[in-house]
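Sequence, please.
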C-alpha cells in the first residue's frame, strides 16, 4: 500500500477483466465466467482502495509519541519536533505522499519527464479515492512541495518551538511550582495556550476517522508535556488527600450510620466536613477536583479530556460523598431534610414508637412526618 505499489496495481486492475476472460483449460468456460463476475475490475479497485485507506489509518493509529519521563526527555522531544528535520513532519509528509494518489509522482521516470514537455502537469487537486477522502485534511496541512513554507504544518512546528523555548529554561524546582499553578487552572508557561493554538490548526481533521487519528497524534507532543506536569499536580492532590482529607473523613465516620453501634455520628463534625458552603471535603472537591469531572446520568465521571485519571474506587468514593451531601444538605450550609416514618399493622400486638416527642402506634394511621435534625429530641 505505497504510491509505487499503487502504480503497479493500477495496471494489474485495468488488465484484470482481459486476463480473466482468456480461455481457462483447467476450470472450464462456466467456472471462468463466475470468477470474472465476482472479481471484475471495478470491484477489485473498490476493495483495494478500502484496504489501502484502512492500512494507512491503522498505521497512524499505531504510531505514538513516547511519554516524557522527566524534564530532559520533554525538552529533547519538543526540540526535535520543532526542528527542520522534525520526525513528525517527515512522517506525515510520507503518509500524505502515499495517500494522495492523484498528486504527480515526486520522482517520475524518463517517459513521464519527456511527456511533461508536451502536456500540462496535473494540478494539485486531490481525487475521489477512499485514501484521498480519508486523508484530504492532511494534504492541506503538509502543503505542496512548491510552497512548503506556507503550509499549516510550519505554524504547528512554530507552536511546538514556542513550547520548547518556554519550557527548556524551567528548573526542576520550578516545575513543581508550575504543576501546582496548573492544578489551579493557571498557565504560567502558556502550555494551554499552545495546546489551543495547535487545536485550531487541526480543526479540519475532524471530518474523517483518519483525520481524527492524525490530529490525535499531532496533539501528543504538547499533551505529553501537560501529562508530565500533571503528574506533579496529581502528587499534590494525593498528598492533600492522604494528609488532610482522609484523616478527617475517618474521624467523621465514627458512629452510626457509618458504623454499627449505639453511638451516633457527630453532626457538628459531619457538617464541618461535608456542608456544601465551606465543608473541608466540599472545598477540596470544588477547588482541586471538579475541573477533572463531569456529570453523566446523575453521577460524576472523569472527563475524557482530563490530563489526570483516577481509580474506579476513588471515583466511587467521590460519588458517594456527593450523594450524601445532596441528601443531607441540599444547597444549605446545615443538614436538613424531611422524612416519613410509618408502622404497619401487626396481628395480636401493638407497637409504639416515640420520635422527637411524637408518639405513633401500629394502630390508626401509624405514621408521622419529621424533620432532621429535629428542633427538640
Amino acid at each position: 500500500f505505497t504510491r509505487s505499489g499503487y502504480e503497479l496495481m493500477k495496471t494489474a486492475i485495468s488488465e484484470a477483466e482481459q486476463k480473466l476472460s482468456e480461455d481457462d483449460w483447467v476450470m472450464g468456460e462456466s467456472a471462468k465466467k463466475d470468477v470474472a463476475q465476482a472479481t471484475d475490475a471495478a470491484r477489485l479497485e473498490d476493495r483495494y482502495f478500502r484496504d489501502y485507506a484502512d492500512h494507512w489509518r491503522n498505521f497512524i493509529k499505531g504510531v505514538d509519541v513516547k511519554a516524557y519521563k522527566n524534564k530532559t526527555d520533554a525538552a529533547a522531544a519538543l526540540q526535535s519536533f520543532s526542528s527542520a528535520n522534525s520526525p513528525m513532519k517527515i512522517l506525515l509528509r510520507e503518509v500524505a505522499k502515499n495517500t494522495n494518489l492523484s498528486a504527480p509522482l515526486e520522482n517520475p521516470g524518463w517517459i513521464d519527464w519527456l511527456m511533461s514537455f508536451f502536456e500540462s502537469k496535473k494540478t494539485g487537486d486531490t481525487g475521489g479515492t477512499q485514501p484521498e477522502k480519508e486523508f484530504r485534511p492532511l494534504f492541506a496541512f503538509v502543503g505542496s512541495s512548491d510552497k512548503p513554507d506556507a503550509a499549516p504544518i510550519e505554524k504547528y512546528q512554530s507552536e511546538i518551538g514556542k513550547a520548547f523555548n518556554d519550557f527548556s529554561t524551567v528548573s526542576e524546582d520550578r516545575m513543581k511550582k508550575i504543576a501546582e499553578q496548573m492544578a489551579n487552572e493557571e498557565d504560567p508557561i502558556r502550555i494551554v495556550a499552545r495546546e489551543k493554538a495547535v487545536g485550531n490548526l487541526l480543526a479540519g481533521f475532524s471530518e474523517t476517522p483518519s483525520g481524527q487519528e492524525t490530529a490525535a497524534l499531532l496533539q501528543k507532543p504538547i499533551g505529553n508535556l501537560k501529562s508530565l506536569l500533571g503528574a506533579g499536580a496529581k502528587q499534590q492532590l494525593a498528598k492533600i488527600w492522604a494528609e488532610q482529607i482522609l484523616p478527617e473523613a475517618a474521624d467523621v465516620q465514627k458512629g452510626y450510620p457509618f458504623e454499627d453501634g449505639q453511638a451516633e455520628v457527630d453532626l457538628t463534625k459531619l457538617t464541618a466536613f461535608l456542608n456544601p458552603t465551606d465543608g473541608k471535603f466540599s472545598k477540596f472537591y470544588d477547588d482541586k477536583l471538579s475541573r477533572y469531572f463531569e456529570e453523566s446520568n446523575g453521577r460524576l465521571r472523569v472527563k475524557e479530556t482530563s490530563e489526570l485519571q483516577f481509580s474506579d474506587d476513588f471515583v466511587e468514593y467521590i460519588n458517594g460523598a456527593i450523594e450524601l451531601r445532596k441528601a443531607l444538605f441540599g444547597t444549605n450550609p446545615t443538614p436538613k431534610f424531611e422524612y416519613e416514618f410509618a408502622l404497619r399493622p401487626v396481628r395480636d400486638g401493638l407497637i409504639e414508637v416515640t420520635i422527637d416527642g411524637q408518639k405513633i402506634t401500629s394502630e390508626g394511621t401509624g405514621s408521622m412526618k419529621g424533620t432532621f435534625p429535629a428542633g427538640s429530641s
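The chain has three domains: 9-228, 253-334, 338-372.
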